[in-house]
Amino acid sequence: MPSGALRLRDDFDRHWLRWALLAWLLIAAWFLATRWGMIYWLALGDTDDNMRLMQVRALLDGQGWYDLRQYRLDPPGGFNIHWSRLVDLPIAGMILLLQPLLGTAMAEKIACGIAPLLPLGVVVTAMSLAVRRLVAPLAWPITVALMLGCTSTMLMFAPLRIDHHGWQLACLAVTVAGMADPRRARGGATVGLSSALSLTIGLELLPYCAAAGAIVTLRWIWDGEEARRMRTYGLTLASGSAFGFAVFGSYDNMAMRCDALTPVWLSAMIAAGGLLFAMSLPRIARRWLRLVMAAAAGAFIAGAFASVFPQCVGGRLEGVSPELEETWLNNVREARPIFRVPLRNALPISVLPAIGLIGALVAFWRARRTPAAVGWAAVALFTLFASAMLMWQVRAGPAAQMLSLPGATALLWIIVPWCMRQRWMLVRVIGVVAAFMIVSGLFVAYVIKWLPIDLPTGRSPVVAKANSNCQRFWAMKPLEKLPSATMFTQVDLGPRLITLTHHNAVAGPYHRNGQAILDVHHAFTGKPQDFRPIAARHHAEYVLICVNMAETTVYRARNPHGFYAQLHRGIVPDWLTPVELPEKTPFKLWRIDYDAPAAPPADQ
């Protein structure tokens, strides 16, 4: 090998962190350049991204640190939001930093563009470190390249994706790096702290945190020398969770609820961490005895949790009513299992996790007689768990793809050198390209385009256009001419309405406020004469609808003769006064007259 290549190879090894961060900066620059138009128009496409910005605005406007209620949804009481302040900090910090230079509006846009890229830097670093520990010191560039093909994962870090999922994925990546750490105390502390941080942000990755704890315990059961790893894990999990709750828990999260780091889960984390710490102190030589102790501790935690917090056992952690679960929560697309998702969408999500699991198992088998076998066993179990989570909810896709990276990297680290040893250059080139396309799962994205499966219906473009147009700045801007008021509109439109205008909304898709969500559903699907009493309870002055938005198609399907269906057909009661909007608007707007007599609808 030429001396220049040797020096570069040595530099990639010794200064890998510098090169990994450079790769992250290049990816971030590409993201910012390609999505600058969306950043400029503050095109926050997801309801949670809009709500995150509103939460930051409220903090900067003086709302209390522990008060996370959103008072512009269903005023005056506001909406109970189950998040924490932790993810608000980098966004708020950038706004405060840029505000004197760019003004508030532009500072918000830049902050929302850059903030999601920060956890991406953590992921690039942590996954590169994990692969260096498991595969080879020079394998990390393959991991970074493979990461670009993790379409579901990378969407969580795209500019404007300011919700907390990117930071939770970053915590998960740090957990993987901790599992692969050969230094037991440091590895246990890394897993414990990253799990505590993830739980402080939200419970979406609670199953992964539980799996990580189980794997740490299994390592101790198998090898008593792993006691130091389990000891620091238990200590940091308990203390980190307590710190996160004390500093970032909201007033509303002081209640005994099951959907956030409340006293319920804080008690469980402290008890679990304390038991693991206590079990690690004595030196227990017999493996079967360690197994019995771990089983007894697990049974105690499960039994105590079920007896003290029965409301969190046997049902959904959200704690919603059966009606809301049936009509809303069970129908959220990302909450469906992968086998209930159209194959055209399911294949690109699930192929890479399957390949990564195969790679992790192969790597474990090859390393079975080396110290790396324990690390690969942990990663293989974690990858298997993440893949299985897809059978529960498709929203596990980003985590499953990211956790497949070590296994996929190991496969390429085996296949590519084999290809390069072949005699013919054409075979070497085509072999390497084909190996990358197959192992990365990118070939599916090209193949799926030509398969006649799950093709979109003729109605899909109409709904997609409405979903897009009604979220845009130009569509919302005319509403600013009206005095500030509470508008009765679709649940999924509420967060965007309060972000881009000075108006309030009745509801948003946040499960702790189930009655308001049900009121919107009942009002739009029920009889026209029942609408005004519901709207009056929420102090609504206007009715705003986005014609053909996905949510409205559900209203029409549930009751073709309901209030929204009649508005869609142009049957408007006398107590609604049309409000003029620009000609190309996707909205229809009426002022509610509570004093007008109620006349029977024309089609009844």
From TrEMBL:
Domain of life: Bacteria
Membrane-spanning parts: 21-43, 110-132, 138-160, 205-222, 234-251, 263-281, 288-309, 346-365, 372-393, 399-419, 426-448
Keywords: Membrane, Transmembrane, Transmembrane helix
Record's protein name: AcrB/AcrD/AcrF family protein
Organism: Stakelama tenebrarum
